[in-house]
Here is the input.
Amino acid sequence: MTVSILIFLPIVAALLTLLFKNEMAKHAAMFFAVVELAIALYFLSGFVPDASLQYSIDAPWIPQFGVYFKAGIDGISMVMVLLTTALVPLIILTTYEHQYKNANAFYALILFMQAGLLTVFTAFDGFLFYVGWEAALIPIYFICALWGGENRIRITIKFFIYTFAGSLFMLIGIIYLYLQTPGKDYDLQHFYNLSLDASHQSWVFLAFFLAFAIKMPLFPFHTWQPDTYTEAPTAGTMLLSGIMLKMGIYGVIRWLIPNAPLGYLTWQNVALALAIIGIVYASLIAFKQIDGKRLVAYSSIAHVGLIAAGIFAWNLYGIQGAMIQMVSHGINVVGMFFIWDIISRRLGTRDISKLGGIAKVAPQFSIAFLIIVLGTVALPLTNGFVGEFLLLRGVFAWGIYTTAIAGTTIILGAVYMLRMYKNVMQGELNELTATFTDIKGSEKLALGIICALIIVIGVYPQPLLHISEAAVTNLIDTVNHKFITTKF
Amino acid sequence: MNTLIIISVLPIVLLYLGLYKAQKALLPVTIIGMLIALGAAVMQWSDNAQPIYHGMMLFNNFSIAFSVVSIVSTILILMLSKGYFEKISSHIAEYYAIILFSLAGIVVMVSYHNLTMLFVGIEIMSVSLYILAGIRKNDFASNESALKYFLMGAFSTGFLLFGITLIYGASGSFDLDGIRDYVLAHPRNIDPIFYTGVLLIIVGLCFKVGAAPFHFWTPDVYEGAPSLITAYMSTVVKAAGFAAFLRLFSASFGSIATFWSPVLMVITIITLFIGNITALYQQSFKRMLAFSSISHAGYLMFAIVALGAASANSVFVYATAYSIASIIAFGALVLVRQQTGSDNVEGFNGLARKNPFLAFVLTVSMLSLAGIPLTAGFVGKFYMFSGALLQYKYIMVIVAVVNAIISIFYYFRVIIAMYFRSADRSEVVVPAYYKFVLGFSALVTIAIGVYPALISSLI
Here is the structure.
């Protein structure tokens, strides 16, 4: 069994899903997503957590141009594959109460996107990586623009052009690296073996950085994000924030810093500064939001800023923290958007100032909401704590003041999140919120899974950390080796 | 060479069929004849072709590949034209015959080995096109289109001919190899007349392929001519123009690239910006396609500016991808126009709800033209960028990327209209042969995008 089954199954599944009508399409998509998860878990069961590439495939694709279908799973990819395959069925589960028009197309697009995402996370060939990168973009564009809110047309085209612009520059970077390889191919390992001089690496760094910074998004490339998250249908927002932005973070770990280590040395201060500005900036804006979904969107920028800071510090703590925080953030943000989906579907508004007292009428909902809030604000024994602790520990190597500023994310996050919780769930019931009914059925199941994951990962993160540890150590060694051997 | 003979004889047969009122036989006979010509071309595939007819023609793999693309595109366009020309006039045999005559010119253009043959090929093609552009005799726009095209075309032919003459004056030869030998034999002391000739040829050929600043005829001519003729002009003719362009510059002028490549570089950059920025402001879908075809001429020019071993391949892949995607776009335009009576992008509003198939194929076409991965258009752009980066033309690639981003706006406007805007409309009737042509083209676009090795190593 190779990783190709993971990549191609969702495509076949998507085409089959198109054949079903409404409710059946939903169930079909769910079935395929669960099968995909089962395959990923099967891969995990046989996975040896060392730095080697496993379940790999290396088939000629356009051999005369040095393009190979080279994909595989190492520790870093394994975590990303688990995240993707676990979140997609969860996201489908959260849509069970929705009746989307043309449901078959909706679920088919989700599965198509999953194929693109898994390609990105397992590709070890530059061309394949780029194709997966774009292939994930088209479905999400259609999901957002077809099933989104009022201003969707204007906002989604902005989103598309932003991300497409970034990725084209990355394409130039990839082609440039390809032209430098002695054997003229796109193999990532051959990219790693290159020793370009510092000024060229600096340009390569910028080309890749732009694509990844837009995708994450880092300040000041984030302007597409709040609008898109707000206008997209909830499932689309979850895909974007839960999985898609991790493409950017993963790209930095795998494709940016190891390919241009000297470029990284040149620009690390700038990158780190942008990440940290983003943390504070987005937290302050989140503070002022009255639309719950928008508040979560800004909080996502802040969290991603911390992850990026941990990576740009480039040490074992920072990167391992980023790995586990990608998973935690994926779970928490999906949970948070689901909470707001439930509220807005029941009450028809996301305006925090109009809500209050929901805990009185919906105790189960309030417990789930609380656990997700606590996970997001990184309370010890929740998943958010493990990641943020490691990330701050990683950034600490950089300097105590940097860490202090980055650490405000925890304080500010706690302030706006708990305030949101207080305003929505506590206080007096009003006419609107009195009609709120407690969660049931698929909602209860989805929130239950999310809460369980938050606590389990928070209490015992070791297995997850263990998966990626060897691969991360190996990657850091590769880069350190390049620092030493490259001529300045 | 049998291909050329078959394509030249076929229109005469068609004219006789028209004379004897065998209207129904026209399309089948044309298509069967062209398939035979196609087969004849493919049969000649070999790696060691020699110039024939006293060095006048060289029917090598390059020529075969471009002939095949031209013939296939023409077949597709002719299949779309079933029932289309009947509405314009009663003498349908003329259309088929004239299109085939111009195709004969195109086959000459992609397989010449002597500048006189280049000139003859371009003239056979152009004269046919002047007639085709004005074929709606009572339509004002069509007449304007024909007149403009004729005046501009005749003018540019003059430049081309003058250039050829000067080159002959300097080198003493019309033969591509002869000219190359002259350039190689005089590394330091090439006659200034020769350089002048090269510049004039550039002007002439840029006119023909619609590159800025020699593009002014394109929008009006493309808009005025009947849609399917426009499709033919902007796909087959453009691809052939670039094949001819590339053949001359790589075979004869390759060693003086330092002289002409800055000139072409400037032309390329202007072409990209003018095509794309003007296309942004078009309300008419047809006019938008006309301007976008200018910008695609800019991308195609990359292969000539960054001349290298892979150039022929790049032009081939790009031209194929572009032609197929454009055929879908024009086919969809013809259908929508029949229903709404206008060329405007608004005419596509809400198309996806009533015609999911039509909307889907047009989306594939737009994505391909915009160069999104997993479509043929991306593969074309990818080769162009790779070739340019290989020659360290960084600025050009950045300009191209900026333009690719601009082009997203207007290509996606069509997708947005079809899927995200709603309008009261009834279903557009899609005849079976349209379904075949559009479906086939979309399939080819995706197939090349997913597995470029299908065509990328032919030449």
Summary: Residues 2-456 of chain B form one domain.
